Amino acid sequence: MRTISRRNLLTMGVGAAAAIGIAGCSPSDSDAGADRQKAKNAVQARPKLIGDGSTANYGAQPYQPKAPERMEPGQTPPQFVVFSWDGAGEVGNGLFPRFLKLAKDHGAAMTFFLSGLYLLPESQRHLYEPPNNPRGASAIGYLNDDHIQETLKYVRQAWLDGHEVGTHFNGHFCGSADTSVRYWSPEEWRSEIEQAMDFVTKWRTNTGFADLEPLPFDYRQELVGGRTPCLLGQENLLPIANELGWRYDASSPGGLQMWPKKKMGLWDYPLQQVPFPGHSFEVLSMDYNMLANQSRNSTNAPPAYYPGWRQQATDAYISGFRRAYETNRAPFFIGNHFEQWNGGIYMDAVEDALKHIANEQNQDVHLVSFRQLTDWMDAQDPEVLRLLQEVPVGKRPRVGWKDYLTAA
Q1: One-character DSSP codes across 182-242
Q2: What is 57-406's CATH number, 3.20.20.370, 3.20.20.70, 3.60.20.10, 3.30.360.10?
Q3: How many Å apart are CA 233 and CA 69, to the nearest integer?
Q4: What 3-state class would DSSP assign to 376?
Q5: What letters, b where the CB count within 10 A reaches 16 and e where it falls short, cover 136-174?
Q6: CB neighbours (10 Å) of residue 52?
Q7: What does pTM read for this prediction?
Q8: Per-residue pLDDT tens for 169-185?
Q9: In angstroms, rounded to a whole number, what is the distance separating the alpha carbons of residues 40 and 27?
Q10: In the structure, what pLDDT confidence band is assigned to residue 17 with cuts at 50, 70 and 90?
Q11: How far is the CA of 250 from the CAs of 81, 107, 259, 308, in angstroms?
């Protein structure tokens, strides 16, 4: 199976190569030199622990693309595709490792929006003080010890495989009640973020797991973006996110397939409206929204519907990709959860869509994380981006990309 090279895969050697003898040295000198080299390698291989050792500085993240360059005058824009995951907890269903393997098989980078609460044992739930909610409350379940350990394992692997670790915050309070994130103030968002940071960077203290390896990154440097629960509360989140130095937010609902713009200083990456086969309306590019339109929020509908719904969801994602790829080349965003709704058909649809996109016979297609996309956006000429942002959904410049963008 042919796959497209999406990234320059740069390996990170944890430790250096074995020491070798030096010509002209006596055996004793050579042995001493080898010992010194081994000691040096051991120091290099030992990560610098942070705080209580829950996280560590392993150096530069592996498998990252080279520094992005500005588009050449008149160059056709690349087609970026971002697959992202809300929650990013492994609960024993094998979905986290399944999609890590799929990404590796197809040279894709993804973004995992980790819920901080997934690293906090329920026995320690009193440590969570959600805004406008009782201490320890959560709209999503706490994970048991085995599932926390699995989540730590796969978050660690995700980062070492080159993926981004963002945040999905903590308690996932949605709805219209005044407890919802919809009504949180900027300072309440600040509290939620600080607590999410604590749960990720102090999991060793909170769990008592002493024999697990640290997460291989400094989360305070790693975290540059997130997605709010149910796509609510962005307006009051953004001032705090900007203050914290975040670079993007992926919480906008119902965005059009157009080139992103900045909102309150951050790149705004919305879930997008995509064609919904068999309907005159469009659907948001996320598994939950497929579910809501197919089975009216039921996660266990009659199995007879599953094959048709799976194909419909797959075709919706592929239609969204093709519309962008064949017209304005706007980055395409797909959101997911690790779930098994309606027999797991939405996980199958996401996998089918990724395989289809990855096998597109063109080097201009890049499966990247939100942070990698942000790096590319920040490197571009603002005037070129302005021209790209003006191209409507499903349209190309009448004069062609070369003449249209050369004008910048």
Answers
A1: GG--HHHHHHHHHHHHHHHHTHHHHH---SSPPBSS-HHHH---B--GGG--HHHHHHHHH
A2: 3.20.20.370
A3: 34
A4: helix
A5: bebbbebbeeebbbbbbebbbebbbbbbbbbbbbbbbbb
A6: 13
A7: 0.89
A8: 999 999 888 999 999 99
A9: 20
A10: very low
A11: 14, 23, 14, 30
Identify whether the C-beta of residue 288 lies closer than 8 Å to the C-beta of residue 334: no
* CA 205-210-212 angle, 5° bins: 110
Number of Cβ atoms within 10 Å of the Cβ of 281: 8
> CA-to-CA distance for 131 and 198, rounded, in angstroms?
16
Banded pLDDT at 361 (limits 50, 70, 90): low
**Residue 134: is its pLDDT beyond 50?**
yes
Residue 162 near residue 61, CB atoms below 8 Å: yes
> Residue 76 pLDDT more than 70?
yes
Element (H, E) at 32: helix 27-45
Q: Confidence band (pLDDT; 50, 70, 90) for 360?
A: confident
Instruction: Kindly calculate the radius of gyration of the chain based on its CA atoms and give it in whole angstroms.
Output: 23
What number is the average pLDDT over the span 243-270? 97
3-class SS of residue 56: strand
* Local structure of 295: helix, strand or coil: helix
Instruction: List pLDDT tens digits, range 77-99.
Output: 999 999 999 999 999 999 999 99
